[in-house]
Specification:
By secondary structure, the protein is an alpha/beta fold. Helices cover about 35% and strands about 15% of the residues. It is globular, with a radius of gyration of 33 Å. The protein has 23 helices and 24 strands. The protein folds into four domains: about 90 residues, Ubiquitin-like (UB roll) (Roll); about 120 residues, Alpha-Beta Plaits, CATH 3.30.70.20; about 350 residues, Rossmann fold; about 120 residues, Glutaredoxin, CATH 3.40.30.10. A hairpin with a 3-residue loop joins strand 3 and strand 4.
Length: about 750
């Protein structure tokens, strides 16, 4: 009689299916199959055991710093499970007395230097350190703090950084470098003095941060959090003279419910509208309406470029973190970026232009609030270019997390709320506007518009599933009539960087490129609810596409209220009024707002300034190694008293780095030999030209001053002394010296 396994294998062979016997390991006395997991931690979690970690994220490189995921393996001892490759036959124990005490000891050490104001922390309730402290049964901290408190960093409108809450897990460092390709923060100092922060001790607002907030998304504590604007919004709501309207981004509706126990991807639009009205907002609108406007303007702009064959590929502009990234790192590609404002800013401009008259108020009595999944939207709303007539188009930006806190503060039972409808006219949208929240959504919305434009009476396609997904880079070709559009969809700025380099090099021939800074698009924004569900982004995306299916209209040009806006306010698509309200311009941005950091400072009056650009582009071309070589050379030659070496960001010569200035001269593609030769030449000039003047004397020591005066006097008297002068006519017999006095020789 065959066993069940024999029957399965026989049936598989008959169908031509090859089956391999799985490998097994033993975890806490249970056999668990090894099914391609990349490390032991993943298998342990698959077995239903939630090992604690601070520094492990499946999307980031393995770091192994926090030492909380330690396990015991027979024959290997204690190891970190995140960095251990699983092997057949391993016998693993995850919860021995030694492991438990070690984890408690580790967490206590972290708590000793940690800001323990947990009840007022922005991460309270979702803090991993707080959770582990409770889970491990830690009731007291046996160690004293070893560091003095460090100042808070509130320099950006998007993020707050509290170094006193940092546990040095490195998650923020790796996500900024590996996912976003920026490296705005990193480890600094050594040993017990190590910290995480921007280069040279600067604030986030002074460096090349693009406000994407992915560092806050992965931070397990309150060390980096979205900067709140809740109090300002409450103040506006409670002001009887203010009319407060709110717009809600597409990605918020499929994530807000997670804060109240709902599954990721649950469409909570109706309950969300009811909650916003209960909080006190006078009108509740949908940013998806403005996304439909964006499609109209962006598709019109694209088709004009396509017809003229200029400024292609066209990059999307709805992600402010990407726009900032382009302004900082790829200023030469700015003509390729769509001039359309983001949907948030389009809504703000149109609302401030039309709603005061409709609501019978003045512009200054209208407050526009945005609910966004993104922290970069906070910085975007505060840009000077988005302020008109004395005030911003969007007054305040709240994240999904902040909205959840306001709902909790109001005391509402979110799950029990009856659904309510959005207000018209800006509450009506098509499915094209809704899918903006997922990576690929903007491309699909534009593809739907193009397909309908060239349908030639046929029923156009509305589902372009080939552009959907969450891979870092996707490509597709869309055909509508005789028009072929080559698309690229990219999320994560490290992927955008590589693609932009290809565009600059002429290695690709795309027509249209969609860029989202956050992995998965807006659904993965830093303002979304904190979750441990690794599939949350995919579930949220499915929720948006389901919402699209539930709507009657799927192409932006079919939105009747968009048509009404053009007929009565904006004029023709791409026309003068539309361009004034819905479009913008870009500028090159320096990546370090302050002066360079001085690394070696000379002591002499006439110092040679040597400046090395260490911005990202120059760094990739060897600027750090060049800077170290220059400093070593200055020390070797003992000319550090004549040279002032400093690092700076950026000299706006990114494609010709590394760039170095020596005095007044600029050297592009500089080598160490070039820098050495230039330094030698300039230092020789300084040494040759140095003279003593009255202006110099305050900087000399008293002894140096006496010596220089004596030397000058000697030369003067020697030039006037008769040739026959000898030792005999010198009072104290100082050979060859004419500077003797009754008090002794000045040379002494």
């Amino acid at each position: 009689m065959r066993s069940l396994c024999d029957s399965v294998h026989l049936a598989s062979r008959e169908k031509g299916i090859t089956m391999t016997n799985p490998s097994y390991m033993t975890i806490d006395g249970r056999q668990v199959a090894i099914e391609g997991e990349k490390n032991l931690l993943e298998i342990i979690r698959k077995a239903g055991i939630d090992l604690p970690t601070f520094c492990y994220h499946s999307e980031l490189s393995v770091y192994g710093a926090c030492r909380l995921c330690i396990v015991e393996i027979e024959g290997m001892g204690t190891v970190t499970s995140c960095s251990t490759i699983p092997r057949e036959g391993m016998v693993v124990r995850t919860n021995t007395e030694v492991l438990r005490e070690t984890r408690k000891y580790t967490v206590e050490l972290l708590l000793a230097d940690h800001n323990q104001s947990c009840t007022t922390c922005g991460k309270s309730g979702s803090c991993t350190l707080q959770t582990l402290t409770r889970r491990l049964g830690i009731r007291e901290v046996r160690f004293d703090a070893t560091r003095d408190p460090l100042p808070l960093d509130e320099s950006t409108p998007s993020l707050m950084r509290d170094p006193n809450s940092c546990v040095l897990c490195g998650d923020c460092v790796r996500v900024c470098t590996e996912i976003q390709g920026i490296g705005a923060i990193d480890f600094a100092s050594r040993g017990s003095e190590v910290t995480v922060g921007p280069a040279f001790g600067r604030m986030l607002g002074d460096v090349e941060c693009v406000h994407c907030g992915q560092c806050a998304r992965v931070c397990p504590t309150g060390a980096i959090t979205p900067k709140p604007e809740i109090d300002e919004v409450w103040k506006a709501i409670h002001d009887p003279e203010q009319t407060v309207v709110v717009q809600v981004a597409p990605a918020v509706r499929v994530a807000l419910g997670e804060s109240f126990g709902m599954k990721a991807g649950t469409i909570a639009t109706g309950k969300m509208v009811a909650a916003l009205r209960a909080i006190g907002f006078d009108k509740v609108y949908d940013t998806s309406f403005a996304a439909d406007l964006t499609v109209m303007e962006e598709a019109h702009e694209f088709l004009a470029r396509k017809a003229n064959g200029e400024n292609l590929p066209q990059f999307t502009s709805c992600c402010p973190a990407w726009v900032t990234f382009a302004e900082q790192f790829f200023p030469d590609l700015l003509p390729n970026v769509s001039s359309c404002k983001s949907p948030q800013q389009m809504f703000g401009a149109l609302a401030k232009d039309t709603l005061p008259a409709e609501l019978g108020i003045t512009r200054d009595k209208l407050t526009v609030v945005s609910i966004m999944p993104c922290t970069a939207k906070k910085a975007e709303a505060k840009l000077d270019k988005f302020a008109r007539n004395g005030g911003p188009d969007v007054d305040h930006v709240l994240t999904t997390q902040e909205l959840a806190r306001m709902i909790e503060e109001t005391g509402l039972s979110f799950a029990a709320l009856e659904s309510e409808s959005l207000d018209m006219p800006f509450g009506f949208k098509t499915g094209a506007g809704v899918i903006f929240g997922a990576s690929g959504g903007v491309s699909e919305a534009v593809a739907r518009h193009v397909a309908q434009t060239f349908a030639n009476g046929e029923r156009p396609r509305v589902d372009f599933t080939e552009v959907r997904g969450d891979q870092g880079l996707r490509e597709a070709v869309v055909t509508a009539g005789d028009v072929e559009v080559k698309l690229a969809i990219v999320n994560g700025l490290a992927n955008a960087l590589m693609l932009a380099e290809r565009v600059k090099a002429g290695d690709c021939d795309y027509d249209f490129i969609e860029v989202m800074a956050c992995p998965g698009g807006c659904i993965g924004g830093a303002g979304q609810p904190v979750t441990k569900d690794t599939a949350a982004r995919q579930k949220r995306a499915r929720g948006l596409y389901e919402d699209d299916k539930n709507l009657q209209l799927h192409v932006s040009r079919e939105n009747p209220f968009v048509t009404h806006a053009y007929d009565h306010v904006l004029g023709e698509v791409g026309g003068e009024k539309a361009h004034h309200l819905l479009h913008t311009a870009y500028q090159t941005r320096r990546r370090m707002a302050l002066d360079g950091m001085h690394l070696m400072t000379g002591d002499e009056l006439d110092k040679l300034a040597v400046t090395v650009c260490v911005g990202t582009s120059c760094h990739l071309r060897g600027a750090q190694k060049l800077l170290a070589g220059i400093m070593d050379y200055v020390n070797e030659r003992s000319i550090d008293g004549y040279v002032d070496v400093k690092a700076t960001f950026c000299m706006e010569r990114c494609d010709r780095g590394p760039t170095v200035t020596v005095g007044e001269r600029v050297f592009e593609r500089c080598t160490l030999d070039m820098a050495r030769a230039a330094i030698d030449e300039e230092v020789d000039k300084i040494v040759a030209c140095q003279t003593v003047t009255a202006q110099d004397t305050p900087y000399l020591t008293e002894r140096d001053f006496e010596r220089q005066v004596a030397s000058g006097l000697l030369r003067f008297l020697q030039n006037r002394r008769p040739a026959a002068a000898t030792q005999e006519n010198t009072p104290h017999g100082c050979h060859g010296c004419a500077t003797n006095t009754e008090t002794g020789c000045l040379h002494e």
